Amino acid sequence: MQVQVRGRRSAGWWITFGVIAFGTLFFAIGAIVGGVSISFVTDAERAKGTVVYLEWQGGHVSSSGKSRQSSGPTAHPVVEFTPAGGAPTTFRSSMGSNPPAYDEGERVDVLYRADDPEDAKIDGFVSLWLIPLVFCGIGLLIAGIGTAIAIATRRRSRPTLSGSGTALPSAG
What span, in angstroms and rounded, lies between the C-alpha atoms of 120 and 79? Predict the structure, then answer.
C-alpha cells in the first residue's frame, strides 16, 4: 500500500511552477531588451566616432603591473562623434569592461537617434546584444530545467500497468 502526502506533492509542484515562471520571466526580459535594441538599430543614424578617454568606475585603478585586476573597476569608453548636420557630441557607453574593450584614440562606429544624438551607442555586439542574449539564455536554461523536472516528476508519478497482472479490456 502506498500513501501519498498531498502537502509535499503540492509544494513540489509550486516550486517547479515557480522555477518555470522565473525562467520565463528572464526570457521575456531578454526578449523585450532585444526588441528595444532591434528598434534602436533600425531607426538609428550612423557616424564614425573616436574614443576620447576611458572612464573607470567601481573602485580604484592601480597602474602598477601589466594588467588591471579583473575584479576591480570597469572602463567605460567615452566617445565623441559628429552627427549629420550637428555639433560634436560626446557620450559615455553604458557597457564597461576590464580589461578595456577599446583604447583611447580608437575609431568606432556609432549609432544614434537623429532627434536625440546624446542617445547613442557603439555599434558593437556587446553594447547591443549581450544583455538580451544573457537574459534569454539564462531564462531558457532555468525554464528548461523546470520543465524537465516537471516532466520527470509526472512520469514517475503515473501508475504503470505492466506487470500488474490485470488484463486490459479488449475492444471487441
Answer: 9
Residue appearing with cell numbers 569592461: 97
Q: Is the dihedral of CA 112, 117, 120, 124 positive or negative?
A: positive
3-state DSSP assignment of residue 48? strand
Q: What is the mean pLDDT of residues 153-164?
A: 66
Sequence-ordered alpha helix ranges (H) in 110-162: 125-157
Nearest to 111 by CA among 49, 153, 62: 49
CA 101 vs CA 95, 112, 124, 168: distances in Å: 10, 20, 11, 68
Residue 109, classed as helix, strand or coil, is strand
> Could you give the dihedral angle defined by the CA atoms of residues 161, 167, 168 and 172, in that order, rounded to the nearest 10 degrees?
160
Within a 13 Å sphere around the CA of 147, how many CA atoms are in the beta-carbon half? 9
Query: Residue 14: which pLDDT band, with cuts at 50, 70 and 90?
Result: confident
Q: Which helix (H) or strand (E) holds 118?
A: strand 116-122
* Nearest by Cα to 105 from 76, 75, 80: 80
Distance CA 109, CA 107 (A): 7
Q: What is the pTM of this model?
A: 0.68
pLDDT digits (tens, 9 = 90+) for 111-133: 999 888 889 999 999 889 999 99
